[in-house]
Amino acid sequence: MKPLYLIALLLVITSCKTSEEVLQVASTSDIKKEIQTNLDAWHQAAAEANFDSYFNLMTKDGVFIGTDASENWQNEAFKTFSKPYFDKGKAWSFTAIERNVYVSQDKKIAWFDELLDTQMKICRGSGVMKLEDNTWKIAHYVLSIAIPNENVKEVVALKNTADSLYITSLKTKNKQ
């Protein structure tokens, strides 16, 4: 009987694949599909104000860069900022209308850009994803408001005062 157990154990051990081996087997196309699915789920979680689902799709050290110059949120600070919106049952609603996904050669990192239909009209999101706990998660996300080139001059004039004050405060802070 012992030889049978040994053979069975040997078969089990040799048939198990490490996550590294599974990663190499996954096609780039399959990885891109999973990333698309996870990004859509992330945006859907915000639209449904599902705090846990939203933040479970970000890495533990994830970063969210918002549209305001002051918004460089490390994960815990972003959770604190976002929680009241999620608790009210309405966070934000972003729907991808175009997305490009790129995967590194070693299939451990991916990056993307997307055009979004939002309450702010067209925005652009871009970011980096990495495999964490066998799930593609957002490690870094940047949200920006898309401004038509012909309107840039008006927008710059509109934000001139606020930007000038913020630039001055940053320069002062960086000198210290």
UniProtKB/TrEMBL annotation:
Transmembrane segments: none annotated. It holds the Pfam family SnoaL_3. PROSITE patterns: PROKAR_LIPOPROTEIN. Residues 36-148 form the SnoaL-like domain. InterPro entries: NTF2-like_dom_sf, SnoaL-like. This is Nuclear transport factor 2 family protein. The lineage of its organism: Bacteria, Pseudomonadati, Bacteroidota, Flavobacteriia, Flavobacteriales.
